[in-house]
Amino acid sequence: MASFARGATLVSALVAATTCLLPSAQAKKADAASAAASQGDDAGPHPVLDRIRSSGRIVLAHRESSVPFSYYDANKKPVGYALDLCKDVAEAVRRHLGLKTLEIAYVPITTATRIDTIASGKADLECGATTNNAERRQKVAFTIPHYITGSRYAVRADSPIEELNQFEGHVLVSTAGSTPFKAIDTANRDRLLRIDVKPVKDNAEAMKMLGDKSADGFAMDDVQLYGLIAESPNPAQFKVVGKFLTIEPLAIMLSKDDAAFKKVVDDEMRRVIRSGEAEKIYDRWFTKPIPPKNVSMNLPMSYLLRDSWKYPSDAVAN
User: Fold this and answer.
1) What is the C-alpha to C-alpha distance for residues 178 and 198, in angstroms, rounded to an integer?
2) Which residues contact residue 215 at a Cβ distance below 8 angstroms, ignoring those fewer than 6 apart?
3) What are phi and psi of 200, to 5 degrees?
4) CA angle, corner 82, sides to 78 and 86, nearest 5?
5) Domains in the chain, CATH or no CATH each
6) Per-residue pLDDT at 42
7) Within 13 Å, how many C-alpha atoms sit on residue 75's CB side?
8) Taking 90 as the threshold, does the pLDDT of residue 49 lie above it?
9) Backbone φ/ψ region at 210: left (φ over 0), alpha (ψ -120 to 50), beta
10) Residue 302, SS3?
11) Which of the four pLDDT bands, split at 50, 70 and 90, describes residue 317?
12) Which positions ≥6 away from 279 have C-beta within 8 Å?
């Protein structure tokens, strides 16, 4: 009888020990099943996710002088508001693919090269200040807007120019391939304004021309103009004028050929917006001192962006 009791006790102990181990084992199986299910649900084809998975690397395209969205700091390191959001998205992609680590690589772009860089697969995300519009959506896709702005004009502080029609007989520059450039070029031709509209390589070249008086104005999203002026050697030398020529929703750009990748990006953007993380990232870059000169842009979030984030969506008017 004693022998039977000891045997029964031993069996009970083994059962108890096995039962204690089950939750851990079940949790591991559940995690693995969740990752497999997540990847199994990916709508095919998914060339971007496959490329990232096989290489263990995600490539972020960045601008060189689009303050504060995407630019080089004093050490030539890519930084900015859009890049911080892209890094959050990269982490979401890592989790979705079940990778232990995911290398982040960077590739510089200009307004002229950014769309081809994404469409050709040279980069996975374009982290800058690109307008989501119908023409571009024929080649690429966009996630939820991270900023809403409009085109205005930077001029020298002593300039009498206030509106577009006053640039008649003057040189007005904008970056080649940008929405503001197309808008002023179209308005100039349609309204017979006789403005000398010139494309330039990037924002830095436009500001240089404005400073050395080889241009009389620089048309660009007003938020970028304020950032460029704040970071210029002599901010008091310039001012921003004019009514909005366009209204532009700026968003991270990605491939239009991978619906599963876009879903991961969209879901992460919704998460950071609804959790309040996106607003904290915004405040860091628009209301606090930023590199390289530790100057604040002092631009609180506009009602346009705040309202759009109440119901975050990639759908835009145009």
Assistant:
1) 12
2) 171, 172, 173, 198, 206, 209
3) -130, 165
4) 85
5) 47-146+251-308 (3.40.190.10), 150-247 (3.40.190.10)
6) 73
7) 3
8) yes
9) alpha
10) coil
11) confident
12) 273, 301
Residue type, 214: S
Q: What is the distance between the alpha carbons of residues 220 and 241, in angstroms, rounded to a whole number? A: 11
d(C-alpha 183, C-alpha 107), whole Å: 28
For 52-75, letters b (16+ CB in 10 Å) and e give bbeeeebbbbbbbbbbbbbbbeee
pTM of the entire predicted model? 0.77
Among candidate residues 88, 98, 78, the one with its CA nearest the CA of residue 35: 98
Average pLDDT over residues 264-286: 98
Instruction: Please determine, for residue 30, whether its predicted confidence score (pLDDT) is greater than 80.
Output: no
First to last CA, the chain: 85
Q: Residues 71-83: pLDDT tens digits?
A: 999 999 999 999 9
Q: Which of 140, 109, 116 is nearest to 253 (CA)?
A: 140
Model confidence at 312, in pLDDT bands (50, 70, 90)? very high
Alpha helix (H) residue ranges in 146-213: 179-190, 203-211
**Radius of gyration of the chain measured on its C-alpha atoms:** 26
